[in-house]
# Entry
Amino acid sequence: MSKGIEAHLFRVWLLLSGITLLSYWLGSESGPGSAIVSYAALLIVAVKVRVIVVEFMEARRASKKLQRAMDAWLFVLLAALTAIYTFKLDMPAV
# Structure
């Protein structure tokens, strides 16, 4: 592995670690049930998923069509989770 790739992956790892620390800080600073923190956590998860898919699953080199499909899937998933949280939809037990 070249030095440039190693440096890039290290920066990505630092970014993901920083985002994780941010989410921990947000959770520890607010009380349970804070809606703003819950929405922020959902957004943080979406950002982390996007970074992991692009950087570690090589989606950056995929076709534009596949990249758009992945982004659409992530958006739909985030919208569904936000709707479930917002409207307190009861989910059936598995």
Remarks:
- Residues 3-87 form one domain.
- The CA atoms of residues 13 and 71 lie 21 Å apart.
